[in-house]
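Request: Not sure, any thoughts?
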Amino acid sequence: MASKPNLASIISEVLQSAGKPMTADAVFAEIQSKSLSDFNSKNPQGIVRSCLSRHSLENTLPHVSKRKFFLKKSDGSFAVI
């Protein structure tokens, strides 16, 4: 049985496919439009924003993930590193 990809992997796939930085809302919209993930949440956009932040190079807080996949641009969009 194949396991489902985690959200960081899905976001990476979306950003790579776009070939350009995207905002968290644009990433969420793309995930929804392609049915890449089911969100069981009242605030699914917040889950995407949180994942982007948690795995962003700029976030160096001690409680966040040490695995970094994203770069937050000055305009607030995110790119894959």
Remarks:
- The longest helix spans residues 7-18.
